[in-house]
Amino acid sequence: MENKQPSLAPLSPTPRSTLHRGAARAVSERRALYDLLDACLVVHVASPAPVVLPMAFARVGDTLYLHGAIGNALLRGARAEDVEVCVNATVVDGMVLARSALHHSMNYRSAVIFGRLREVEDEDEKRSALDGVVDHVLPGRSRECRPANPVELRTTRVVSLSLAEASVKLRAAGPVDSDDDLPLPHWAGVLPFTQTTLRPLPDSVHPIPNPEPPPSVVRARLLWAPRLEPFLEHPGVRFSGVAAELDLPRLLGWLRDESYWATDITADRLVRAVVGSYTMAAYTPEGAMVAFGRVVTDGATFAWLADVFVAQPFRGRGIGRALVRNLVDHPELAGLRRVMLGTRDAHALYASMGFEPPPDGILMQRVQRAR
């Protein structure tokens, strides 16, 4: 379902949506509302009756789509237009730890939306909304599975809610202690949260013919992979540590056809390697990926630099050196005792960055057969 943006006018407060407590944290930009809803997997929907339901949803422009069974407790026995609701969406970004228990808090983004529901009766809009709900949870998934059949469509109710009456509130700061508490010895700061995925588990009860994850799952894994923000620049290229930007087919071709260390790598194994690493890639102004590298680390004592590759036409320009430094010299990895790598043709390059062969007899390896 195409997510068009008909208007980005500021949020217009109403008596219901105006913030009174913590009003300084109010955000009036409509884009903040859209970004929050796009990042939130579930909203909680309350009607005047004492019921609050967690619901999957889709946002299309300035409209929220909700769905449920015909007997859904929120809508049972009522016309959608007669149901007034309040919707809450919240994303917690971190714990804020203060010196006193009273001043502990959270960094968060939260929205409250008010309005009357609208029944979605047009079949095309209904199908599009249901596809949108699936794609909101996992973008692209609706194209990889069977759509709702006529019976499922009849027994599923879809309603929409305008985002016209909404408020957004956020906190993105450190602890705020009273002056009297500042000398206390207790640790204070922020514990950030992040979202990630684990390795996909194919259906074990009814095995599927192709166990490799589909594109939607691969994209989700890359989107939530760990990342480093590049701290060094280089003329003519842009560095990025965002795994979702990677040109995986090109990277797979480099490693299979032009490397000497990963000629047997598969697409699934490459995705697993990428999401288990910090990656860095270089791109031309036109967006073509021309270099790649990754580092595997425990974040405290050790790191392994791997799969460093620069496309042939871009070698000899210092791109590879800058890319490697964006990984091994990154402030996030400061304090590691040892960074290691394996190479048979780039010793001089790595020696110029402080790498040296380990003393004989120290290192051992166990080569395992690929599974």
Give structural notes.
The strands form 3 sheets. Strands 1, 2, 3, 6, 7, 10 and 11 form a 7-stranded antiparallel sheet that branches. This protein has 2 domains: 23-175 and 184-192, Pnp Oxidase, Chain A, CATH 2.30.110.10; 215-351, 3-Layer(aba) Sandwich (Aminopeptidase). It has 8 helices and 16 strands. It is globular, with a radius of gyration of 26 Å. With 371 residues, it is α+β, with helices and mostly antiparallel strands. The mean pLDDT is 91. It starts with 25 loop residues before the first strand and ends in a 20-residue tail after the last helix. A hairpin with a 7-residue loop joins strand 6 and strand 7.
Run of helices and strands: EHEEEEEEEHHEEEHEHHEEEHEH
Level-2 CATH architecture of the largest domain:
Roll
Beta strand count: 16
Average pLDDT figure: 91
Gap from first CA to last CA: 39 Å
CATH class of the largest domain: Mainly Beta
Q: For the CA atoms, what is the radius of gyration?
A: 26 Å
